[in-house]
Design goal:
This protein has 531 residues and is α/β, with parallel strands linked by helices. Helices cover 48% and strands 15% of the residues. The strands form 5 sheets. Strands 2-1-3-4 form a 4-stranded parallel sheet, sandwiched between helices. The radius of gyration is 32 Å and the shape is flat.
Length: 531
């Protein structure tokens, strides 16, 4: 069989539009790359180009695509202009080059004669990469200084224009100016919050009045972001993160007065004080670790989950479950259910109606029939998998015959190669699945009725004890092990669970038994809006 010709992909990059004029243009990188690939006696199969993206960003879309292409199609050469075009950052660059070399792909530079596989080449490549990273850090510092000066001079550094402002041209640069139609909404948000409304209540009221955020409904998060942003007091904040995107302490941030303010600083300070006072305290935990059924409750009307929310009264904070869609103001109606009352009632209801000896014995009887069905289904699955293996082997054999007969001159060679890879992957998947089925342990069916009664009572005692001690996370994890969802309607709940999971029988998870219990406590006026 003729020797396979070498293949190569070409990767080109410039950092920004401005730098594209100073650096080697994309077109020149591609032209030089084509010559380099020809000198390697290789065939160029694809070109990848990232424009206007920093080399310190390792999630560049075309770079990631080039890496994936090399591993998928077993490319011999990854060609780019130099180490800096591959990326800036010694550690990450070494990682990605190692991944390429593991797949049989060598990195080749157009402007640097470096053989990364040799001892001397490895040393020079590392030196170039360190220089690239040092340069990148210097550019980053210079850029930050330039941006700070630009902001102090009253100019906008670019990016998404904050709600309430508009970027207006001032020569070749831009300034932030107040957009009064939006600024009026910003002032309304701060005013409502100061009079006692929470971020969620503010969002709901704005949506009800038809005041959207640039075509989108308001949410608790978008309102909270505005309330906490110093951009509305005329400041631009720098140095929030390190060069590798890790957050810095707030006392290391740099604040620069850069544009007109919509909100006075005294007002912002008062809002910040209220935000801090309403933030969850460390000793109370988050809502997700405070209530037993977070993540299990579902709305019967829209299918969205129920999540906890709070309302602050004159002397205490009240917690409720409410439909997530209603909270976001996206269509569903509010049904605020007192969280602790619902937790207590649901726990006792599940203990009485599900975790009792009678139900557990019925589950055991159902499971006693599993073993016979399990063996029959396993044999059928093995027969099907082996039939599929024979079919895949037959298709692969035909492709090998074509490749052996025609070699490089085979018609549609690229398509044939891709189909062969897909068949190889399918064969491996079938082999893994067959191994899993053959080694799967059968379900245990010997269950003592006395043990079942003991197990049921132990479960009940454990749940009640954990709930009484405030260990609701353990209660929630236990219920989630057999409950798929608790659907809340106006006057009933539908608990959907898989009873076989209660006995933890290996292999019994293949059952699809659904049991339903419908009930709902009389919550009276507690189902109304929060105070």
């Amino acid at each position: 069989m003729a020797e396979r010709s070498k293949t190569a992909i070409l990767y080109a990059r410039v950092s920004t539009r401005g730098q594209a004029e100073e650096e080697l243009p994309i077109e020149s990188q591609i032209e030089a790359g084509e010559k380099k690939i020809a000198s390697l006696d290789a065939q160029l199969v694809k070109v990848f180009v990232d424009g206007g993206i920093s080399g310190r960003d390792w999630q560049r879309s075309e770079f990631v695509a080039a890496m994936t292409y090399c591993s998928t199609f077993e490319i011999d050469y990854f060609v780019c202009w130099n180490t800096a075009r591959f990326g800036r950052g010694r550690i990450d660059a070494a990682f990605y080059k190692r991944e390429l070399r593991r797949g049989g792909t060598n990195v080749v530079y157009i402007a640097q004669d470096v053989d990364g596989a040799s001892e001397d080449g490895w040393l020079f490549e590392g030196f170039y990469e360190l220089m690239d990273e040092s340069y990148s850090r210097t550019v980053s510092k210079d850029t930050r200084r330039s941006m700070m000066k630009n902001a102090r001079d009253g100019y906008w550094n670019g990016g998404n224009v904050p709600f309430g402002f508009v970027a207006v041209a001032d020569g070749k640069r831009k300034r932030l100016a107040i957009l009064e139609s939006e600024a009026a909404v910003v002032r309304q948000i701060f005013s409502r919050y100061l009079t006692g409304d929470g971020a969620k209540a503010v969002a709901l009221s704005l949506n009800e009045e038809g005041l959207q955020m640039r075509g989108r409904p308001w949410s608790k998060t978008t309102v909270a972001n505005i309330l906490s942003s110093e951009v509305y007091t005329g400041y631009t904040v720098f140095n929030r993160r390190t060069h590798d995107r890790m957050p810095r302490p707030a006392d290391e941030w740099i604040r620069t007065k850069s544009h007109p303010e919509i909100i006075e600083e005294a007002t912002m300070e008062e809002v910040r004080r209220i935000l801090n006072s309403r933030a969850p305290r460390q000793d109370t935990g988050s809502p997700h670790s405070t209530f037993a059924f977070t993540g299990l409750l579902r709305c019967s009307r829209c299918g969205q989950g129920f999540q906890s929310e709070n309302a602050t009264g004159r002397s205490k904070t009240y917690w409720y479950y409410n439909c997530r869609s209603a909270q976001k103001g996206t269509g569903c109606t509010h049904r605020r259910l007192p969280a602790r009352d619902l937790d207590a009632w649901l726990i006792e209801s599940i203990l009485d109606r599900v975790l009792n000896p009678t139900v557990m014995r019925e589950i055991a009887e159902e499971i006693s029939t599993v073993k016979g069905r399990w063996a029959k289904e396993r044999d059928e699955r093995v027969t099907t998998l082996r039939k599929e293996q024979r079919a895949v082997d037959g298709r692969r054999s035909k492709l090998f015959d074509v490749l052996e007969l025609h070699g490089r001159d085979a018609p549609n060679l690229a398509d044939l190669t891709e189909r062969l890879r897909a068949l190889n992957a399918q064969a491996k998947d079938l082999e893994r699945e067959l191994t899993r089925v053959l080694t799967e342990a059968p379900p245990t069916t010997e269950i003592d009725p006395v043990e079942i009664d003991t197990l049921a009572e132990l479960m009940r005692e454990t749940v009640r004890s954990a709930a009484a001690d405030g260990r609701v996370k353990r209660v929630r994890e236990f219920f989630a092990s057999f409950i798929d969802a608790i659907v809340v309607d106006d006057d009933e709940v539908d608990i959907r669970y898989q009873p076989e999971r209660l006995l933890a029988i290996p292999g019994a998870s293949t059952l699809a038994v659904r049991s339903k219990a419908r009930w709902l406590p009389d919550l009276g006026s507690n189902q109304g809006p929060a105070d």
